[in-house]
Fold this protein.
Amino acid sequence: MSKYQIKTLQDPADKTALEKKHVPYFVEVPDKVKKGEYFKVTIRMGKEIDHPMEEGHFIQYVALYADYFQLARADFNPEAKAEVTFNVKLEEPATLRAFESCNLHGQWESSHEITVE
């Protein structure tokens, strides 16, 4: 695996230790929203295991995209909790993509399909 590759969850039934604490997890996200109305998206790094947030190992940022258009970004420092809530809106259906970067283990991605009515 190239160090420049974006990592994703490979097998939901058999997660590795790295996947358990690195894959961005959509804590709060609707499946359907109204066109042009704001809604909340909460993302946490890791579902089963909270990602460490210490000087030598921490999440640097998480960015939220609608398909490949950036909607929002949050930068973290070692003293922060690796979780964020964004208020965003969409004009058309999209795949929400969360990209996060760990200073030791590179970039990770997860996605969620969203319908706009």
User: Anything to note?
Assistant: The first strand starts at residue 24 and ends at 28.
